[in-house]
Every structure is written in C-alpha cells, then in structure tokens.
Amino acid sequence: MKKIICSLPLCFVLHTASSQQSNSNVIQVNIDLHKTAQTIRNFAASDAWAGQFTGNWPDNKRNQIADWLFSTDTTANGQPKGIGLSMWRFNIGAGSAEQADNSGIKDEWRRAESFLQPDHTYNWKKQSRQLWFLQAAKQRGVTDFLGFLNSPPVAFTRNGKAFADKGQSNLPPENYSAAAVFLKEVVQGIRITTGVSLNYISPVNEPQWDWSDGGQEGCPYNNEQIAGFTKAISKTFSEAKLPVKILITEAGKINYLYAPEDKPDKGSQISAFFNPRSSTYVGNLPNVYKGIAAHSYFTTSPEDTATAIRKRLHAALNGLEFWQSEYCILGDNAGEINGSGVDLGMDAALYMARVIHSDLTVANAAAWQWWLAISPYNYKDGLIYIDKDKTDGQLRDTKMMWVLGNYSRFIRPGAIRVQAEISDSAALKDLYLSAYKNKDNTLRIVVINNGRTAANASIHCKGLKAGSMRSYTTSAAENLQPGYISGNIVHIPPRSVVTLTGNLSNKQ
Fold first, then answer.
1. pTM passes above 0.85
2. Burial track 133-154 (b if 16+ CB lie within 10 A, e otherwise)
3. Which residue, 44, 145, 415, 474, could crosslink 369 as a Cys pair with Cβ 3.0–4.6 Å?
C-alpha cells in the first residue's frame, strides 16, 4: 500500500495514455494547501572546481553556462533558458594552486587559489574566474550566496598543505581566530570587489573523512574542533557586525547527524551542536544558522533504506532545519546505478529526481544542493560537462541539469511544501509527486514518472484557478518543454519529470 498527497472542487487529469482509457485506470490526487510542511530556502550547485578555468572561457560559452544555471528568463514561446538556481556555492580556496606540484594534489583542476598571500596581505585578483560566475549569477537574479571551505588557508594548517596527515585535523586550535579573520576578510573583500554579498559561510566540509590522500583540498574535524572553530568565527563576525550566517556541518552522510555510526566523536551532530546540555553546543551563537547540513551520499539505495534513514533524520531534527548541501551520483548504489561514466540522459536524471523527492518529502529538506555545476570528469557528477581545457572547449548540458530545473526553476525561495495524497495503486511504484505553494500565490506540482508506461492522474485542489495550468516536461526528447493544458488532459510521458504550474485564488 502506498499513499502520497490534494482538496476538492477543481479537477484536471494527468494523462499520458489514450484519452479513451477507462476511469478505473486514473489515479486520484488530492492537494491540501492548508496542510503544510517545510519552507524551501534554495536549490544550488557549486563552482568547484572547473569554475576557476571556465570563468576565463570565451564570452559566449561562459555566458551560456551562466544562462543554463541561473537564468529564469524564457524565450518567446515560453521555453525556459535555464534552471534558475536560487543559490550559488563559492569554493573559498586554501592556496594549493599557488603551491603547484608542491601542493601534493596531483590533479591541477582540484587545486584552488587563495586570496591570502604568503605575506598575509590579500590579493582580490585571485579566484577571478570564480568571481566572474558570482557576478554572472547576481546579474541573472540570484540573491543568495554561500562560501565554503574544503580546507583552511595553507598559511594556517599544521603541515602547510591543503590536506591533512593521517586523518588528523589540519587546523590547530591556536589558528581558529586567524582562520576566522580570513573568512571575515573574504566576505568583505568579495563584497567590495564584486558587489556580491555572501549570505552564508560553511567552514567545514565532510569532517568525518580523513582527507589525507592528496586527492583534493580537505580537512577533517571532530565535533569539539568544529565547535571551537565555529565559536571563533561567530565571535569575529559579531565584532565586525557581519550579518553572515554560519552553516554547519556538511556531514559526509546523513547518518552522522543523528547517530555516532563508526565515528563517535564526529557523529550525532544534531545533539552535539544544538542540544544546550552538550559540551559542544553552538546553537545559541548569534551567527550560527538554526539548521544543519549533510550530504546524501551513500544513503540513497535501495529505496526502503533511503526512506528509513530520512525518517530517522526527520525525527531527530526536532524542528531544526535540514539542508541537503551536496550530492552527485557516487558508488554502485546497491546495483541501481553506478557513479562511474558520464550519463547525459534520463537514467541518471531519474535517479537524481528520486533522491531529490526523498530528501524533500521524507527528510523535509529546506535546501537541495548539487556538487559540481561544471565537470570535466568521467563521472555522474556534473550538471554541465566540458572538455578539460583551461581556455576553451565544448559544452554539454545534461538531463540531470534540466531535471533539477523541474524543481529549482519553479519552486522559489520561501515556497512551502503542501500535502499531496495519491490513492493506493500498484501502478504507483514508479510515480512520485510533491506540491509547493510559492510566495506569489502560485502552485507547483512536480511529477516523476520513473516507469516505462504512462501515468494517469486526476488532481484535485481547492483554490486552483481553472485554465491557469501549464506543464514543463523533461524527457529523453525535451528540456523543460512548455505545454498548455487544453481542457482537462495533461500528458506525463514515461521516464519523464513534469512540473505543473498554476495560479491560486485568494480564497483557498
């Protein structure tokens, strides 16, 4: 038995098979605008690591990338130009790029520049190509920006590198304040240089992992170390009267938020940081965001396991906001899909869609953020793929990008998820649906049809204005293709994601 979530007078039909089909094959969906869940803050992706090069590509190509990622404009026929990300994640580099081969990071594309110079002055011409994307995002309407650290600047690390030794934290406590001042200077310097204000700082990334193999910039921390660093940052920001919020902890997987798992001094992070009785409590600090972040890696397959993990997380949050702050398809995922190999098509996109749906509807995620916006690698890690060339190359968009757009382009910051209930049916095993009310009094319904046959549904929602519905379909042949709903029939193709949009009356 499967139940998902709508109200009464208005009815239209989601229909992909012949309109001659019997009503017994139509699934009923009820949307109740008065039964609400979480508020959505943003959908995002990051500029790591290719932004440092593609920001220097020819204008037409870097602008195409920016349009795909940030634009909310449409063509004359209503075709969206981009996916309208509502937040952009900026990788604050540690300085491994300046160290070159001496950095110990073999892949040059995974090194990063630092604004901080060896003489402890700042050079705001560093990370200039990433700054280009910050400005491009702002020009296209993005208002929220997050700066994240994979590693503290090499000037402050124990070993002078941007990765650790033997899994030990590379930031000694005596340098917490210096690293906090660095972050303050970065926030202020970026604002002065570009006009972009970072709204959030994420100071640690996947602290549970060792980060000792030189594969990229990285730094491990236990909970006590995170608390100490966070206190130093909050104190520094408060003294400088910076309104920037600190987002913690970007846990390596969801389980570490509610359980000790295999790392007791790095797990149970909800309690560690937001329980006033904890020795590492930071929830009362003025700059700490009242939410906690984790990555959905290694928790997405099989589906019943993914659901159980997210239910446990939601129960443990106790009202605290949850952000899913990084994900791409990694590993073998219980044999469902392998993270190796580029997939521009719907297999990876539909898997991603199921992860988004689970994070939003079971874990009640308030934010959903992808890892690499731009990738040169042969993995399922990019929204856009490029040649591994520093100055020019080919661009390839993906169905993963457009499917993320089925959410990000239409569900805007401040939207509230509302209840959507689907009648029991064996046909539902491949159908997923969620609904959202935007602040501008519009309704957005995202339908995932993971199956190879059509889905048919009768949707009821009190307050939905007749004749106001449109559809936007991503499938093997379409990228957010707009469609007008003529009469009561909406087509939901097999193996597709469709966003339905409509206007709500003031009386609901």
1. yes
2. bbebbbebebebbbbbbbbbbb
3. 44
